[in-house]
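re: that chain from earlier
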Amino acid sequence: MNLYLKYRPKTIEELDLTGVRKSLSDIVKANNVAHAYLLTGPRGAGKTSTARVLARIVNCEKNGKKLGEPCNECSACLSIMEGSAVDVIEIDAASNRGIDDIRELKEKIRLAPAILRKKVYIIDDVHMLTTEAFNALLKTLEEPPSHSLFILCTTELHKVPQTIVSRCVQIQFTKATPDEMQRSFARVIAGEGKEVIGEALVYLSKAV
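^ sequence. v structure.
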């Protein structure tokens, strides 16, 4: 397994961006999850990893009445990390962008989760949906089932209709700062049991 996959963030604390860690920490502290989130920012900033962390937060068996970090050890967390959780559906809107795809989603989301506490839909590249598909998605976001959670991801916010944006809690992703890069490098280096001089980390963080 390459380092990118091995050290993909699995908890809030491991997320690279300070602002994103704060956003998810605030969700946990408030003990309240919105029905839809819109993750926006450049490709490779960690949107999908964050979506999966959020999916585990709301479904972790150790998070009962009080939200917290996902344990990543219970059957719910493990199934989501392995990609085998039937109640966590990841959709690539670049390939499934039509109204029929969203209509199918609307029909299925009305059904209660098969195993997990929440049925989570992660829609990547949501800006690629057609106008008709966006209209169908809007109706679902207006009256979402209580057991559902939508996490929409996009690199092109300006292509997402304002009607969709207004019904989501937006989390903004940015390019990592040198300090955030150093923090990320340090986590990987520690995990590999290696040592790297501080000056090298500073150089690498500014070179990326």
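The longest helix spans residues 178-191.
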